[in-house]
Amino acid sequence: MAVATPETAVEALQRVFGYETFRGDQAAIIQNVIDGGDTVVLMPTGGGKSLCYQIPSLVRRGTGIVISPLIALMQDQVDALTAVGVRAAFLNSTQDAAERARVENAYLGGQLDLLYVAPERLSNEATKRFLARGEIALFAIDEAHCVSQWGHDFRPDYLALSELAERWPDAPRIALTATATEATHAEITERLGMQQAKHFVASFDRPNIRYRIENKGEVRKQLLSLIKGEHPTDSGIVYALSRNTVEKTAQFLADNGLKALPYHAGLDSRLRAATQSRFLREDGIIIVATIAFGMGIDKPDVRFVAHVDLPKSVEGYYQETGRAGRDGLPSTAWLAYGLQDVVQQRRMIDESPGDLAHRRRLSAHLDAMLALCETVHCRRVNLLGYFGQESTPCGNCDTCLEPPESWDGTVAAQKLLSTVVRLQRERNQRFGAGQLIDILRGKVTDRVTQLNHQSLSTWGIGQDLSDQQWRGVVRQLLAQGLLAVNDDGYGTLVITEASGEVLAGRHPVSMRREAERAARSVRSSG
Ligand code: ADP
Ligand code: ZN
Question: Helicase ATP-binding domain spans which residues (predicted)?
Fold first, then answer.
């Protein structure tokens, strides 16, 4: 009997996965791993990271150990591989003893191509001793950004993965992530000891996704008008921050004749699984979810991703919007945000447990997100720039298609800031946006009368702008760091160091005019 020559990577691609050719850097990445080299892969969601470790695991001797935090998805991943004849299994806390023993025996007997393991298991010495008794083809560290304390998804168990290289110097390691700031990249390299690795950084551009960010008015109506107007029969995902908003939004869409289903961690796990599988199998399902939904879900024809609350970071926004249009066809990423989002998130940061450095990090994440929202330039240039990638205006985002007008908001900013200053200095009072705007517009409310705010020198000096325009002014001042939310838990507003420059007339303030746009989309839904 002739000795079979080992299968090549391309042969495995065609035979097992039924694809003709590799995409992008896949071939070079896979070759490097097969040759035993360490590899770091930064590739956007949908770029095809899985094959980068699956194929080397098939070609190299032994079992590919895949470290993944997405325990809920391991079963699906293993099922999909088993269906195409790959010998795959997983070890995680959801298994009973008998099942675990079966998987362990298969591994020790050399009968597995791929073994998925949760990171917390690998920080356990018993697991490492067990793995040492079998033959390891490679280690794949999926969602490698979880090792980054600067990132938005830090998992302490990932820190222990640095030991793999010492213990198994001959097993190549491949670290993969769809998060790609330079800081995260540097941290992955350092913490996982990947200095000698080859690095592959794919373009993060998703040209088929049209980015749109608008002002939050009656957000459910805005959302409904987007879906009915542009995606009436499409599959989509709507993200909200709280379970309550998820429930209400799903109900509202369902009441308006759409197939919308809620999804959040408070729902029964069987119901969640059923919702997820309907989304994958049926056409035109809209999932309204907290961020708990979507990680690792491979549905190529999600036509829109909508955010009804401001995401906490650009990384999160990019990952979530990245679930749209994996098939390369035109798709929409839509976000509505308003003043309340900024106030609420500042408050959440102030109240968050953890040290000052941690709160500063959260704050920096929020600032970057706000800068994306308030930019008068191309959204994509801003987004890719955040990931260290230079580009030119895309022609496929709201600011490219309908360039926002900017206006000189210096005087408006001065009116508002001096109201804040006067209340603070003359009365030792602090207020949220609502009361400040009432004062500027000279509205005689009970509260105004009670507090005698008519006697302030800024009373009624802001009648040239509407309530909504004033809210836009407040929001943009917050985004530009010219106003801050006080950390008293009430969302009152205070001036910052930079505010002084505006009041002194040394810092002109340019603002984005966008109220019209939001108003229009609300009207067209009526
Ligand atoms: P990621 O993990 O980077 O988000 P996946 O590995 O899930 O991406 O791949 C996204 C989709 O692209 C999957 O449906 C996958 O089967 C498909 N895919 C990956 N590589 C290729 C290829 N070379 N040719 C065709 N389809 C591919
Ligand atoms: Zn653009």
Answer: 30-198
Is there an atom of ligand 1 within 6 Å of 46 CB? yes
Q: Which of 171, 183, 206, 146 is nearest to 53 (CA)?
A: 171
Kind plus residue range of the DSSP H or E element containing 139? strand 136-141
Establish whether residue 56 lines the binding site of ligand 1, counting it when its CB lies within 6 angstroms of any ligand atom. Answer: no
Nearest ligand to the C-alpha atom of residue 393 = 2
Give the ligand whose atoms come closest to the C-alpha of residue 401.
2
Residue 463 vs residues 82, 441, 442, 457, 493: alpha-carbon distances, Å: 68, 5, 7, 14, 21
How far apart CA 41 and CA 114 sit, in angstroms, is 19
Residue 408 near residue 443, CB atoms below 8 Å: no
* DSSP, residue by residue, 415-434: HHHHHHHHHHHHH-----HH
Ligand 1 and 290: CB distance under 6 A:
no
Q: Which amino acid is at 276?
A: Q
Give 282-320 as a 3 state SS string. Answer: CCCCEEEECCCCCCCCCCCCEEEEEECCCCCCHHHHHHH
Q: Is the CB of 45 under 6 A from ligand 1?
A: yes
Distance CA 31, CA 34 (A): 5
The answer, yes or no, to whether any atom of ligand 1 lies below 6 A from the CB of 24, is: no
Q: What are phi and psi of 289, to 5 degrees?
A: -140, 160
Residue 3: Cβ-neighbour burial (10 angstroms; 0-12, 13-18, 19+): exposed
pLDDT at 522: 36
Distance, in Å, from the CA atom of 211 to the CA atom of 399, rounded to the nearest integer, reads: 9
Q: How far apart are CA 401 and CA 242, in angstroms?
A: 32
Nearest CA, atom 14, ligand 1: 298
Regarding the beta carbon of 22 and ligand 1, being less than 6 Å apart is answered: yes
How many alpha carbons fall within 13 Å on the CB side of residue 261? Answer: 19
Q: Is 189 in the pocket of ligand 1 (CB under 6 A)?
A: no
pLDDT of residue 514: 64
Q: Which residues are close to ligand 2, an ion, with C-beta < 5 A?
A: 378, 380, 394, 397, 400
Q: How high is the pLDDT of residue 489?
A: 67
Q: What is the ipTM of this complex?
A: 0.98
Q: What is the pLDDT of residue 180?
A: 72
- The DSSP bridge partners found for residue 337 are 215
Atom 19 (ligand 1): residue with closest C-alpha? Answer: 48
SS3 337: strand
What is the spatial distance between Cα 474 and Cα 286, in angstroms, rounded to a whole number? Answer: 33
Query: Of the residues 16, 51, 179, 320, which should be mutated to test ligand 1's pocket, given the most ligand atoms within 8 Å of the CB?
Result: 51
Regarding the beta carbon of 319 and ligand 1, being less than 6 Å apart is answered: no
Which residues of the chain are modeled with pLDDT < 70?
1-6, 295-296, 489, 514-526
